[in-house]
């Protein structure tokens, strides 16, 4: 019985500690805006350039091989996507399209709220 009480007390203590600190965690997240639009664009450009440098370092045979693999994977992914979409009912398809719209709208809103 004593062990049971200790376990319950420790769980209650842990929950209380988490709930007590929850507002400060949320405040910190709100105050930290993350990267600016310019920083995100710069990181994207740097990543693109790094990828292009890697691509240019490949031999023509390696590039051709990678292109073939990419085409195969794209074809397979496209086929899988079509099969999944066709397996859905019209209501399920509509629900997914509505969800896509919400995701796009939320992403646009987050982007526009970011500082330049």
Structural features, described:
By secondary structure, the protein is mostly helical. The protein folds into 2 domains: 1-32; 37-113, no CATH class. Helix content is 89%, strand content 0%.
Salient structural properties:
116 residues, mainly alpha
Total helical elements? 4
Give the proportion of residues in helices. Answer: over 70%
Mean pLDDT: 83
| Biggest sheet statistics | none
Uncertain segments are none
Spatial shape: extended
Order of helices and strands: HHHH
Overall number of domains: 2
| Total number of strands | 0
Structural class: mainly alpha
Rounded to an integer in angstroms, the radius of gyration calculated over CA atoms is 25 Å
Give the percentage of residues in beta strands: under 5%
């Amino acid at each position: 019985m004593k062990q049971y009480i200790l376990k319950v007390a420790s769980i209650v203590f842990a929950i209380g500690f988490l709930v007590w600190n929850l507002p400060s965690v949320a405040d910190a997240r709100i105050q930290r805006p993350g990267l600016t639009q310019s920083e995100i664009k710069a990181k994207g450009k740097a990543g693109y350039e790094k990828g292009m440098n890697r691509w240019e370092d490949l031999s023509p045979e390696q590039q051709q091989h990678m292109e073939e693999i990419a085409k195969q994977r794209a074809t397979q992914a496209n086929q899988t996507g079509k099969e999944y979409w066709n397996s859905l009912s019209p209501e399920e398809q509509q629900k997914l399209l509505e969800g896509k719209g919400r995701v796009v709208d939320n992403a646009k809103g987050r982007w526009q709220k970011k500082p330049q």
